[in-house]
């Protein structure tokens, strides 16, 4: 079972995607399961995890409605207002949906880089743990100090770093060191996993396997194949790549792994982490 651990469906007409504006012409249209199906089939990907793209409960309900009628959607990572007093109740309600697998606050867009370290998040996090749900961390390396505080505070929470914490690949060596130093700090926390996704988006146009190889190698060295999971970040990926290209390149970059290790990165790890 090959699983895409990170992709999106959306409809701009819904009106709650603040970042998705008409100037993003490649992305500013509805994307649904029928758009992804031929790409998945050619790549041999059977199921996916759909991740929120708007900071609203309404979008989470929209994705869960899609998931009820779409067998290829194995799980949904949604959004809840974590600092709301109603958050634990809302998490409990959403957890009754079989395909609801976790939440993602859009940390990269918040004005306070230390937001994730707020102790007032505890009731929402404890609800996630109680319902065996996961937490997606959409962070840059500038969030690492606060993230370490958060992750250390909740060792029972299953956490995954989205897009390898978005290394500034397009900056070349100038951006390498701060990211390379941050990754082992994230990886030393044994309950923290990482998505092998989003790298093409962070690279300059005309990226190649050689462009991404040092980043993938560093992630493998830090997290190991047992805590990495492949994701496409489609359709955002279309801004600087495409589904089949990224899937093929990832296979090449992971060629040194054993068959069992590659199967883990391309499916088994996501299935175990998200309880699919």
Write the topology of this structure:
Layout: E1 3-7, H1 33-43, E2 47-51, H2 57-68, E3 73-78, H3 87-94, E4 100-103, H4 122-130, E5 134-137, H5 144-153, E6 158-161, H6 173-187, E7 192-196, H7 199-202, H8 209-223, E8 228-230, H9 243-253, H10 259-273
Helix pairs in contact: 1-9, 3-4, 6-8, 8-9
Structural class from helices and strands? alpha/beta
- Helix/strand order, N-terminal first: EHEHEHEHEHEHEHHEHH
CATH architecture: Alpha-Beta Barrel
The tally of beta strands, per DSSP, is 8
Count of distinct structural domains: 1
- Classified in CATH, the superfamily is Metal-dependent hydrolases
Strand order of the largest sheet: 1-2-3-4-5-6-7-8
Largest sheet: 8 strands, parallel
Average predicted local confidence, pLDDT: 97
CATH class: Alpha Beta
Query: How much beta, percentage-wise?
Result: 5-15%
The stretches of 5 or more residues where confidence is low (pLDDT under 50) are none
Annotation field: number of helices: 10
Tell me the distance between the termini.
Answer: 11 Å
Over all CA atoms, what is the radius of gyration?
Answer: 17 Å
Looking at CATH, which topology would you report? TIM Barrel
| Helix content class | 25-40%
Shape: globular
Structure description:
By secondary structure, the chain is α/β, with parallel strands linked by helices. 40% of the residues lie in helices and 13% in strands. The protein contains ten helices and eight strands. It has helices at 33-43, 57-68, 87-94, 122-130, 144-153, 173-187, 199-202, 209-223, 243-253, 259-273; strands spanning 3-7, 47-51, 73-78, 100-103, 134-137, 158-161, 192-196, 228-230. It has an eight-stranded parallel beta sheet with strand order 1-2-3-4-5-6-7-8. Helix 5 (144-153) links the parallel strand 5 (134-137) and strand 6 (158-161). It is globular and about 50 Å long. The N and C termini lie close together (11 Å). The model has no long low-confidence stretch (mean pLDDT 97).
């Amino acid at each position: 079972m090959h699983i895409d651990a990170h992709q999106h469906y959306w409809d701009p007409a819904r009106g709650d995607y603040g970042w998705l504006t008409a100037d993003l012409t490649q992305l500013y249209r509805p994307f649904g399961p029928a758009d992804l199906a031929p790409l998945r089939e050619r790549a041999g990907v059977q199921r996916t995890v759909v991740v929120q793209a708007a900071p609203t409960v309404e979008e989470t309900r929209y994705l869960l409605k899609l998931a009820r009628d779409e067998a290829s959607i194995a799980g949904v990572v949604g959004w809840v207002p974590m600092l709301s007093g109603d958050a634990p109740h809302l998490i409990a309600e959403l957890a009754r949906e079989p395909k609801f697998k976790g939440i993602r606050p859009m940390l990269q867009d918040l004005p306070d880089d230390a937001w994730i370290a707020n102790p007032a998040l505890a009731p929402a996090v404890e609800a996630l743990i109680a319902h065996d749900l996961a937490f997606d961390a959409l962070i840059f390396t500038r969030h690492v100090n606060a993230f370490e505080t958060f992750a250390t505070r909740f060792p029972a929470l299953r956490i995954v770093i989205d897009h390898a914490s978005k290394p500034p690949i397009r900056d070349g060596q100038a951006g390498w060191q701060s990211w390379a130093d941050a990754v082992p700090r994230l990886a030393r926390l044994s309950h923290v996993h990482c998505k092998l996704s989003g790298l093409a988006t962070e690279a300059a146009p005309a990226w190649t396997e050689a462009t991404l190889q040092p980043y993938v190698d560093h992630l493998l060295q830090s997290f190991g194949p047992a805590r990495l999971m492949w994701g496409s970040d489609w359709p955002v990926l279309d801004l600087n790549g495409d589904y089949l290209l990224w899937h093929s390149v990832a296979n090449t970059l992971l060629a040194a792994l054993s068959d069992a290790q590659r199967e883990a990165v391309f499916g088994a790890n996501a299935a175990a982490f998200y309880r699919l």
